[in-house]
Amino acid sequence: MAAPLTLLLIVAVTIRAVLFRSSLAELISARVEVVSPLNAWKRVVEGLALLDLGVSPYSGDVFHETPLMIYLFHFTVDYAEIVFIVSAYFFRKQKYALESDRYSADCLELLRSPKEMFYIPLKVAMFYLLNPFTILSCVAKSTCGLNNAIIALFIFCTLKGSALLSGILLALATYQSIYPLTLFAPALLFFLQRLYIPVNLRRSSFWFFTLQYAFMYVGSLVVITGLSFFLLGSWDFIPSVYGFIFSVPDLTPNIGLFWYFFAEMFEHFRLFFSCVFQFNVFFYTIPLSIKLKEHPVFLIFMQIAIISIFKSYPTVGDVALYMAFLPAWSHLYRFLRNIFLVSCVLLACSALFPVLWHLWIYAGSANSNFYYAITLLFNFGQVKVFTTTWLTNCEWKNRWRNKVSLFINLY
Amino acid sequence: MGITAAAARDEFQEELVIRPLHSGDIYASFQFRTLWDTDFLQEGQKVSHYRLFPKSLGQVLSKFSVRELHISFTQGFWRTMQWGQPFIPSPPGAELWVWFHDTVSDVDGNWKELTNVLSGIFCASLNFIDLTNTVQPSASFKPLGLGNATDHRFLRYATLPREIVCTENLTPWKKLLPCGSKAGLAVLLKSEKLFHSSFHSQAVHIRPVCQHKNGLDFAKILDAPSFCIHLCINCYLHLFTEWSLFKMFSRTLTEACPLATSSKVYVDITDNPEGELFELSPATPLLSQAVVLGDRRTYSVFDLTRAETFGQLRSLNLLLRWKGDGGEMLRPLLHAERYVAGFGLQTGEIHTVIYNNHPYRAFPVLLMDSVPWYLQLYIHTLTVTSKSRDNKPSYIHYQPAKDRHRPHLLEMLIQLPPHSMTEVTVQFERALLKWTEYTPDPNHGFYVGSSVVSALVPSMVAMSTNFTQDQPLFSSFVPVKEESSYFVRVYTEPLLVNLPTPDFSMPYNVICLTCTVVAVGYGSFYNLLTRTFQVDEPSLPLAKRLANLIRRIRGVPLLT
């Protein structure tokens, strides 16, 4: 297992290094699909330049990273490329460990042959490292790669069973961008399952553990936020980072649904629709947790997918994060419906994004509607990917349970 | 209506300076100055008797506790390289900068009301000035009048590059003059000829000065400052080889304003000492010399308070006939240009080029840039190069923009090497705005106000720091602090930048389509969350079911 993994790592690092040194790096850093106002490298450099000039980076509207990020890059700005490659490597390591850990949890699923399961970690590693989305994100030095690494570490710690580390890493991920808050529920469910505590609201052991975990999580969050306050000297970063994520004032086009919607919104309804769109991300947590409480790892996948699609400034780096999970459910490939259609839609949209952007912004022969249409289609395709995965997972479980063929209502 | 010198509390002076250029062009500058011994801000003393000072502006000053007010409306762009330095520069569009008094507690509130009141007084749309285009320069706009406290929290500066000047703005401006447009030099201000010019600018400058009688030094500060209001009109006209006042303004001068203590017309004859370049008639024996903008100039003076100036016909129609061609214009020592580089609607670069034409002296300049918030500047891309080498500014004051609240402000002190060209570059990104934030013609583009380059330029000729009554008004507008340099302010071109636009016909469609995609997601979730899977026996064909029914009645085992 080590040899193919090492080979894969070498190939991935080589591709990234080659692209870093070529002229494509600058081109990719400017692409709106790959970077967003929240995680663009250009803005990190701008924040550092403002800090050097003696102006607070949060006094303007250019910089929206968290204070710990500034200080991290303050010291490593010359080695930024190495930082990003290292974080991709960490992600690899965690994904691999994740898969090796899942063997014990899912060994009941005998429909998968041992040989298949042996190759899953390698496939996951391949899916992430060699995914063009990830490569583009890394070469553009978007801080999305660092966010992904933190989430991967969090998943790894959760699967390993260390509640404290998992709480700390989840707090760090939430501190970076608010949305990983929804991953609290699946992590909690996983720990409860692992410790054989039944999810019963009347049981005191359930509440005891929940409070413990919540305390660790909230405590770490408070500590990290306090640390940022002391480093920066003011609370300026809260409206600049979290206020920015929630109120979406910057309408730079990206691959998500928010930008054009709020560009064309009637003023009267702006607040209402902002609330609706943000609520949409957090709202699915409770029903999904109730439905999938025996499958917390799948729940994590679903939550990450929902965040990546419905967050306010998505990029292809977020898409790559949940796509890396797909080989973990390789036993479903046989049953996935419409998989060809959906993958064609996603591929076509990925190819059309830069074309229509060029036509709108540079050639002037198209207008914003073209780019917006592809955004819609891309998000529709993404929704189809994970609903199909979920549907097939449900079907397969039932099939396994009943060992009979069944007729399913068409939807 | 005579003014006795002893009890004079206010006085009014008017003058017209005509500078003919070699290509047959004329630069005409009208200056009307009223000096008034009063203090608007004195407690308990409400000023109610206005004579020469315009009442509307006096009331504005006292209500908003304004120390200095400078407002200008300009049509056209002053081409420094071809026409030389103007006496009083102004940027295209409208410009307003105000120093408030230290006692003001809410400067922004006063500023907002002041712009609205001025917009009513001048019939201009100054009400478009709000916090999104107002800046507080820290070093560029120091007070031109008296004042030791220079806390820039009390300074506000705004430009409206898109503002157009027309007859509607000229009429209320003329009403501010004591004689109106009925007597004196103001009779020449007829809009049909005035707006035919390539460049037209009208300005009002109000500032406190110290009282000066019989040549007191400007530097002496007395207890009660006077207020000086300076109204000036600059215009630049293209004419042919022969021009006259009548041809230029469709009027001639018949009398001086009775309320004026001095009313003069100056014609610049420095380039024409022997009369070989042009011929000026009627001839006048009066000559005056003044050092203006670092250059010693000679003027023919026509004093309108003297009856003999008007001659037999009782009207003065200056006539100038060109004889020869040529005449080199003095190259201005400081000159600046600005343009936008780049292609596409995503990014761009602002290039400001400053020329120092002095052959051996280097001097520092203060460059001030105010860029609207929708062009996001990246200050880490700021480069200043002189003679293809890096030139680091010694002072940078940068205030980044806050979206929809305030614009960028960039001020830099750059040392210009002698006889060189300095280029300042900064990259920016264009933002996509909400559809209601675009102007009705969004594809016209968005204006970025002119950059301001302020400098103390070393003078070839020694300047005089003493102010005397005899000096022409235009040479004493900006106080001269030292002999070896004079103050110059150069405005660059305004920029016109295109922003990416959304489709304005689509709000309802966009809402529907986006909500559809969200609903597809929601619908699929709801379906999968509430779906239950059940085993379904395959249903038997009709014949077998009937047979089963009969078998049940008989009590025999059923078919499957």
UniProtKB/TrEMBL annotation, chain A:
<keyword id="KW-0256">Endoplasmic reticulum</keyword>
<feature type="transmembrane region" description="Helical">
    <location>
        <begin position="178"/>
        <end position="197"/>
    </location>
</feature>
<comment type="similarity">
    <text>Belongs to the PIGU family.</text>
</comment>
<keyword id="KW-0337">GPI-anchor biosynthesis</keyword>
<keyword id="KW-0472">Membrane</keyword>
<feature type="signal peptide">
    <location>
        <begin position="1"/>
        <end position="25"/>
    </location>
</feature>
<feature type="transmembrane region" description="Helical">
    <location>
        <begin position="369"/>
        <end position="391"/>
    </location>
</feature>
<dbReference type="InterPro" id="IPR009600">
    <property type="entry name" value="PIG-U"/>
</dbReference>
<feature type="transmembrane region" description="Helical">
    <location>
        <begin position="269"/>
        <end position="286"/>
    </location>
</feature>
<dbReference type="GO" id="GO:0042765">
    <property type="term" value="C:GPI-anchor transamidase complex"/>
</dbReference>
<comment type="pathway">
    <text>Glycolipid biosynthesis; glycosylphosphatidylinositol-anchor biosynthesis.</text>
</comment>
<feature type="transmembrane region" description="Helical">
    <location>
        <begin position="150"/>
        <end position="172"/>
    </location>
</feature>
<dbReference type="Pfam" id="PF06728">
    <property type="entry name" value="PIG-U"/>
</dbReference>
<dbReference type="GO" id="GO:0016255">
    <property type="term" value="P:attachment of GPI anchor to protein"/>
</dbReference>
<feature type="transmembrane region" description="Helical">
    <location>
        <begin position="298"/>
        <end position="326"/>
    </location>
</feature>
<feature type="transmembrane region" description="Helical">
    <location>
        <begin position="338"/>
        <end position="363"/>
    </location>
</feature>
<dbReference type="GO" id="GO:0006506">
    <property type="term" value="P:GPI anchor biosynthetic process"/>
</dbReference>
<keyword id="KW-1133">Transmembrane helix</keyword>
<feature type="transmembrane region" description="Helical">
    <location>
        <begin position="241"/>
        <end position="262"/>
    </location>
</feature>
<feature type="transmembrane region" description="Helical">
    <location>
        <begin position="209"/>
        <end position="235"/>
    </location>
</feature>
<keyword id="KW-0732">Signal</keyword>
<protein>
    <submittedName>
        <fullName>Phosphatidylinositol glycan anchor biosynthesis class U protein-like</fullName>
    </submittedName>
</protein>
TrEMBL record, chain B:
<dbReference type="GO" id="GO:0016255">
    <property type="term" value="P:attachment of GPI anchor to protein"/>
</dbReference>
<dbReference type="Pfam" id="PF04113">
    <property type="entry name" value="Gpi16"/>
</dbReference>
<dbReference type="GO" id="GO:0042765">
    <property type="term" value="C:GPI-anchor transamidase complex"/>
</dbReference>
<dbReference type="InterPro" id="IPR007245">
    <property type="entry name" value="PIG-T"/>
</dbReference>
<protein>
    <submittedName>
        <fullName>Phosphatidylinositol glycan anchor biosynthesis, class T</fullName>
    </submittedName>
</protein>
